[in-house]
Design goal:
Elements (H helix, E strand, L loop, with lengths): L9 H5 L3 H54 L13 H9 L4 H8 L8 H25 L2 E10 L4 E11 L5 E12 L3
Antiparallel strand pairs: 1-2, 2-3
Amino acid sequence: MKSSTRADPAFVTKGFCTRVAILRLEWHLRCHSSLQKYIGEQLSEQYSKEKENNRVMLIKILSCLQLLACQGIPIRGDGDDSESNFIQLLKLSGQGDAKMDEWLKKKTDKYTSHDIQNELLKIMAQHVLRSIAVQIQDSRFVTVMIDETTDVCNQEQVTVVFRTVDDKLIVNEEFIGLYTRWIQS
């Protein structure tokens, strides 16, 4: 029977040596791990730069949305999104920032669509409601005020307000929301 010329003679002529096998395994692992690390670093370097840039832009978008929402300023315009208050505020906040200009020129994945805006606003609203809930739980005295009215379209509109008194006897009122429901005749 012919043996291959490339075969390791460890099992054929020399026998198995644990020390040599361990040295070869260590050498193999060192080579493999350094190669894998080098390739991994190359592949993920661009990804981590893009991820960091996305974080920075998302924080700017969130701060612009928060400002518009807190001030009660409309976010969207009448038609063209490029003229909306939101986009104009982003352009203003990124004035002189080449990354922001590049970001706004992108066609996709820029987190400025109506759906993304609505979702971010909902998340912010949930955060506010949770902080109000903590404030209510920490208060000794709580009052719930609910007022309703029916408008000419036969819609019932209900407002909900919580009034709390803290330890220093300071009264706080928190408007929770205006809820609309149809009245069936």
